[in-house]
Amino acid sequence: MSADSEDEFMSGMSSEGGFEDGNESDSVSFGEEFEDDEPALDFGLHDKDITSAPKKPYEVDFDVFGPRDIQKYQDKQIDEVGAILGQPPESTAILLRHARWNKERLIEGYMDHPEDVLEKAGLGLAGAVPAKTMVVDGFVCDICCEDEPGLETYAMKCGHRYCAECYRHYLSQKIREEGEAARIQCPGDGCSRIVDSKTLELLVEDDLKDRYHELLTRTYVDDKDNLKWCPAPNCIYAVECGVKKRDLNRIVPTVRCDCGHYFCFGCTLNDHLPTPCALVKMWLKKCEDDSETANWISANTKECPRCNSTIEKNGGCNHMTCRKCKNEFCWICMGVWSEHGTSWYNCNRYEEKSGSDARDAQAKSRQSLERYLHYYNRYANHEQSAKLDKDIYLKTEKKMTNLQSSSGMSWIEVQFLDTASQALQQCRQTLKWTYAFAYYLARNNLTEIFEDNQKDLEMAVENLSEMFEKPTSELAALKVDMMDKTSYCNKRRIILLSDTAENLKNGSWKFNIDINTA
Amino acid sequence: MFASKRLGKELAKIHDKLPPGISVAKAEDLQEWQMDIKVLDDNPLYRDETYRLTFHFSSKYPIEPPEVTFNRTGGFKVPIHPHIYSNGFICLDLLGKQGWSPVQNVESVCMSIQSMLTGNTKNERPPDDEEFSSRNTKRPRDVNFYYHDNDV
Ligand SMILES: [Zn+2]
Ligand SMILES: [Zn+2]
Ligand SMILES: [Zn+2]
Ligand SMILES: [Zn+2]
Known about the structure:
heterodimer, A: Four Helix Bundle (Hemerythrin (Met), subunit A), 12 strands, elongated, B: alpha+beta, Ubiquitin Conjugating Enzyme
């Protein structure tokens, strides 16, 4: 980022509109951006072999379901189990919910002690009583104390009878105010009978019924370990994945919802590949605890290491050029840029001080802070750069749209910018987490390969990021170059993630903390 | 109000007859009542003391539980108990959304609290009392009590 390139993007462009998240494919393959339905466009054809390759070590199998699928699947299970148990659907539903959808356990338990199972699920003795309200002579409602003749009343099989009005109020309180559905009990004191869906159908208004079914579906997903809601705001999909909790120190199960959101199935946080959930949790906690120490790092201005004039960062790229003295340096380590990417220079690696430097406690604590700041600095920087990259892309995109007519390019043809921008976002996300990962990594013969992969991805990312800062008029001519850099970034990311995941699976990484206690 | 008939009946009933150790201090409207309770046996923790409870009724009472707290002003003390906070809040599952049943009433709540005191031998506050009482400015209904085991 050169400090004076700012004006280039400042000429009255408001950045509206987000990314078009391609939801054309369910595949998790990260190369999918390269598959285009417009074959004439030659979008990264050289990546075809990667896209069609079998599953990569860091990929997991998963499925995405909409609310209707979930409802259907639930109904199907209810029918199946109901037929085996000889119970009507509404009771079967209660039994299954009570057994947290463990069919086998429910059927087995029911075969042995049907009465017990029914009792525990709040169903009491079997025997169909049709759900209907009735008028009872001399009835006084224990809830509202109404006693007028002709009062409509209702009771479930437990016989606790209240006026229909009170029953309705009670149900609406539970559903609307308390968000309950699967485990609403009879209003009677100490009665554990569960309100079944037949009762609900009879008593509550339609809008509440919708809410009730929504809540039931919610409970279904919440009850199943292999199902999780997509955490994106307002997203209606749930994702199914077979990775178990106990596997989380060996795999990072990253899934892509149909809404376009990538998240970790283990902890539902945003994609944090290649770092396992336990380390993510530890790292976030540490960053929170140390936020004040680390605050100065996220500052947007620094001084040029050569002439000390103030440099403001306004793009994602970390290759800085001082406007005044033309010094080119790296924003992260403040080192000379020309040395980046050469074999002896390592911006990403933390050089451990030799033992003699850190003899006393103070020196040790200074060194441990320094080490943390090294990694935090890079972590925070990629996070911030990703935001700046996005800003600059949105501005560029707007300008490209305006330029389409003059450059003679069609809308489809400027999509390479979108593809590049998405790759940049994803790669920075990965890079960010490699630094948290590295912080907890104990040195062994594998760390060097990891650091090399990290450095290669970092350089690829900075090179692509830099392209976005070119004058918009030049971008059309840079299309091929940009596409090459984009696919190179993706390739580097795949290499890094595959290597990390492979070693994680084999337990080859050594950490400087106990990952199992996190 | 949804159940004015119900509260009207309860009002008539508590002015008429209440179990021993429980009495009405103030019940003039259908929003807030004050009830006094005494522990009848010779439990040394509560001997010769009268405690005052304030009941608040929402418009959804008795579908929703009333808010019940011990008074600590007007010369009243908050009884010592492992489930009663020094700010007067009571951790009792029957007063929570899960444990409440709309057939419960003021009288039955008073009786439950009375028997909770009668059976107690521990001269102590909940373990998180200091933190909870100093920080908590919410109303009881907004507090998500984690119910201490109910064997006390
Ligand atoms: Zn009942
Ligand atoms: Zn009623
Ligand atoms: Zn989603
Ligand atoms: Zn995770």
